[in-house]
Amino acid sequence: MERERFVRLVGQVLDSLPERFRERIHNLAVLVEDRPLKSVSRKRPGGLVLGVFQGVPATQKSVFDLSHGPNRIVLYQKNIEAVCSNDAEIRHEVRQTVLHELGHYFGMNEDQLKDV
Question: CATH number for the domain including 35?
Answer without folding.
Answer: 3.30.2010.20
